[in-house]
UniProtKB/TrEMBL annotation:
CDD domains: ligand_gated_channel. Keywords: Cell outer membrane, Membrane, Receptor, Signal, TonB box, Transmembrane, Transmembrane beta strand, Transport. This is Ligand-gated channel. PANTHER family: HEMOGLOBIN AND HEMOGLOBIN-HAPTOGLOBIN-BINDING PROTEIN 1-RELATED, TONB-DEPENDENT OUTER MEMBRANE RECEPTOR. It comes from the Bacteria.
Length: 805
């Protein structure tokens, strides 16, 4: 929103004003759109003091408007009289800029996106980012209820959702737990890729924007304590921001610790049915009870240092460091049912000490040139290390065990360099072009010693990754009804790895045309239609490419492991998955910032990657082993509809209490060709997901109450169907239980400087089951192996005091 206020002033001579106007014309384009002031302007800091040239230029831009009016007046008045009258009646103009609301920014965007700003983040009081994201339409989380997990858009599993931080890919080893919500300015969720944000987003993109420009002085302190699994989890965070002349900074620090306990119960069964018979013989029926206790410590410090060097020129540095440690103690006991034998050792105990640290520095230099050209140069570097020390005892009893120890370190280094040029052209065009380069290096070392062959497998790995991208896009406002956004992106990824088993090189490149359009039936109306036609892709992960073995520790290497607990190895020959997508959406915006929307999408995927398990003779074991390896298995398609509504209760009835409602529902369908149905869907995709939520500002009280219900049904997926040597077949399934997560909070505002919040997560806790099934058949008969794991979920409570100092 731009607000103009005028104040009578005759202090400045006319020639000084027109000299400033002339300077502004030489430094700014002719296009009226480029004459609008930046959104970060504040009236209380805007003066015509010559010591601040950026502020003088902004006043000059406003005078340009007055000059146009004066030129029009000269057509009807003598020049001399016009000059005298203008000098006598000259008014001073002050301009205030405010960033558009989240809903308005979503409305203006040509590419479909959802914006979650500070207001919504602070309203819910979430302790981590996953709690924020799970309320969005079409977003699901991996793992058990109440614990967060991998974020998935449109129900699609690992790698289909692109995660960015300030528009750049998250560094290696990054997890959402490393970012406190206090560090975040806003979160942008793009349902379809754009040339600028990248095409590695088959399901969509989540772009986390860290704290940006300083809008006002800030000095906040939050102290909280949580309770889960009988363990306390205290935390403290501090945020400070200030603008000092042309220099501004934001600092955010977070420190937390806690204890978390986990229990897991797994039952594994294996039965054999001879050929020509219907009677199965139960060979294995065993249960594993696992208990673990984790003591965690996490700290992070981030911020932004920003200098305004002149009109349209800005330099910003964004440092970020984080450190975390975890001590985990686990015990596993295995028991066989009467009449069956154990497939592995019955007792296991492990003690793991792990640390992780990450240091990152990003720089951003923005400049404005003559003719409306703007440049944005970005550079960054990061370094991280994960180190783990695991000691195990495996045996028949705690007193009679085989001891082993594994030391693992992984060092990652990344360098990024990129730039963007933006030019506003006549006819409503905003043309942008960019270059991106990333260079990554990973050095991983694993040293083992122990009593079995698997304990002495020392795997050392070196990986070098280079990514380059070129892109071009044009945002074109045709008229008041139509807007187009077209782009073209070329991206190449080269991976070279060396490990004790050999060297691997993989290179892939993808060219992605992208087109978005918006149609507004009436100028200034509240309805609009969106359409997107895009090409995106999913690159194989480093873990999938490198042919490095990962051995299942549940069974020693002198025995055959169960098909539901396979060893794992990569596949250097993997190709990226390519997806052609179409999105159609209708949006209706309500008067008070609410909205109602419906979005339909379809993706056609070629070269789908799946993990396939087979029984193999391997060099790391003396017995045949079940080994899981990723493969390109064929084509697939997925489609769905996402419905969303956000509104106030007063929009439905008069004199209603101050209640804000939010609902969304997403329905999904998918099919993988070459795998028989009915469960041949995309990995980890449920049939639907839904959210119901409300926030109530209690009238007459400084109290706000809110609650949200997240629902995801259970599902079964047939993950593979393969025919191997001698006509044998192997079919695999995975399943997951339903999730029902109820969260609630109460916020008491003592005064604008002090707030107290009580929140509860996963209030209706229940056990969460997941399972896998492998059926293998050959001439002798069929073997059916199943494993069902049940985990206990718990309710967590949190009390937080927020102080504005």
């Amino acid at each position: 929103m731009i607000r103009y206020t005028t104040r009578r002033s005759t202090q400045r001579p006319m020639r000084w004003l027109f000299r400033s106007w002339a300077a502004s014309l030489s430094a700014a384009p002719d296009n009226p759109a480029t004459m609008m002031p930046p959104r970060h302007l504040r009236t209380d800091r805007l003066r015509t003091d010559h010591r601040h040239p950026d502020r003088v230029r902004l006043v000059a831009l406003a005078i340009d408007l007055l000059a146009a009016c004066a030129a029009q007046a000269q057509n009807v008045r003598p020049a001399a009289a016009s000059t005298a009258a203008s000098a006598a009646a000259l008014e001073r103009v002050e301009i205030t800029g405010e960033r558009a609301s989240d809903t308005e920014e979503r409305r203006r965007s040509t590419a479909a996106k959802i914006v979650i700003g500070r207001e919504e983040i602070e309203r819910q009081g979430d302790s981590n980012i996953t709690e924020i994201l799970k309320r969005l339409p079409g977003v699901t989380l991996g793992g058990r209820p109440g614990r967060g997990g991998e974020v998935r858009m449109r129900g699609m599993g690992s790698g289909y959702t692109q995660i960015l931080i300030n528009g750049e890919r998250a560094p290696a080893g990054f997890s959402f737990d490393q970012l406190s919500p206090d560090l975040i300015e806003r979160i942008e969720v793009l349902r379809a890729p754009t040339a600028e944000t990248g095409a590695r987003a088959v399901a969509g993109t989540i772009n986390i924007i860290l704290r940006e420009d300083v809008k006002k002085r800030l000095n906040n302190l939050k102290v909280a304590v949580g309770q889960e699994d009988q363990g306390w989890q205290p935390s403290v965070s501090w945020s400070r921001a200030e603008q000092i002349e042309s220099f501004g900074y934001t600092l955010n620090a977070n420190l937390s610790t806690g204890v978390r306990e986990t229990t897991r119960h797994t039952r594994t069964q294996r039965g054999f049915t001879p050929a020509g018979s219907e009677d199965a013989t139960l060979q294995v029926d065993q249960t594993d009870d696992n208990r673990s206790r984790e003591e965690r410590l996490h700290s992070s410090l981030g911020g932004r240092l920003q200098w305004r060097l002149g009109p349209g020129e800005l330099l910003a540095l964004q440092p970020f460091v984080t450190f975390s440690s975890a001590d985990t103690h686990g015990v596993s006991e295995r028991v066989a049912a009467p009449g069956t034998t154990l497939s592995a050792l019955p007792y296991s105990r492990s003690d793991t000490e792990a640390t992780f640290h990450l240091a990152r520095l990003n720089g951003n230099w923005q400049s404005r040139w003559s003719g409306g050209l703007r440049s944005d140069l970005r550079a960054g570097m990061s370094q991280s290390r994960w180190a783990g020390d695991t000691q195990r005892l495996d045996g028949n009893t705690a007193a009679s065990s085989l001891a082993s120890r594994t030391l693992t370190t992984a060092d990652d280094r990344w360098w990024t360099l990129g730039g963007k040029l933006t030019q506003t052209l006549a006819g409503g065009h905003a043309l942008a072009a960019g270059l991106e380069t990333d260079v990554g290096q990973r050095d991983q070392r694993s040293d083992g010693e122990g009593s079995t062959a698997s304990d002495n497998l020392d795997d050392n790995l070196q990986v070098r990754t280079f990514r380059g991208a070129l892109w071009l896009q044009d945002e074109w406002d045709l008229d008041a009804h139509w807007a187009l956004h077209g782009g073209l992106r070329w991206e190449s990824i080269t991976t070279r790895s060396e490990w004790d088993g050999g060297a691997v090189r993989n290179r892939s490149s993808v060219t992605s045309p992208l087109l978005h359009a918006v149609w507004r039936p009436s100028e200034g109306g509240r309805d609009q239609l969106r359409a997107s036609l895009t090409r995106s892709y999913r690159a194989p992960s480093l873990q999938n490419l490198v042919a490095r073995r990962s051995i299942s520790r549940s069974t020693p290497t002198d025995q055959t492991n169960e098909a539901t607990s396979p060893d794992r190895i990569g596949n250097p020959a993997l190709k990226p998955e390519l997806a052609t997508g179409i999105d159609l959406a209708f949006e209706h915006y309500l008067a008070d910032g609410g909205l109602i929307s419906a979005n339909v999408f379809h993706r056609r995927i070629s070269g789908l990657i799946r993990n396939v398990s087979t029984l193999q003779t391997v060099d790391w074991a003396t017995a045949p082993r079940w080994v899981s390896q990723p493969r390109n298995v064929g084509d697939a398609s997925t489609q769905g509809i996402e419905l969303e509504a956000k509104y106030a209760l007063k929009d439905l009835m008069q004199d209603a209490p101050a209640v804000d409602l939010r609902h969304n529902l997403a329905l999904f369908r998918s099919r993988v060709e070459g795998i028989p149905g009915p469960d041949n869907r995309i990995d980890q995709q449920p049939d639907w997901t839904a959210n119901l939520g409300a926030d109530w500002r209690v009238r007459g009280w400084p109290l706000t109450l809110g609650a949200g219900l997240n629902l995801t049904p259970g599902y079964t997926v047939q993950t593979s169907s393969a025919t191997i040597a001698n006509g044998a077949t192997i079919d695999q399934w995975s399943s997951q239980d339903a999730k029902r997560v109820l969260d609630a909070y109460a916020l008491w505002t003592f005064n604008p400087a002090m707030k107290l919040r009580l929140s509860g997560a996963n209030l209706v806790s229940r056990n969460f089951d997941s399972g896998s099934l492998v059926v293998s058949s050959d001439a002798s008969g069929s073997t059916r192996t199943s494993a069902v794991t049940s985990q206990r979920s718990t309710t967590s409570w949190r009390v937080e005091l927020e102080l504005k100092l």
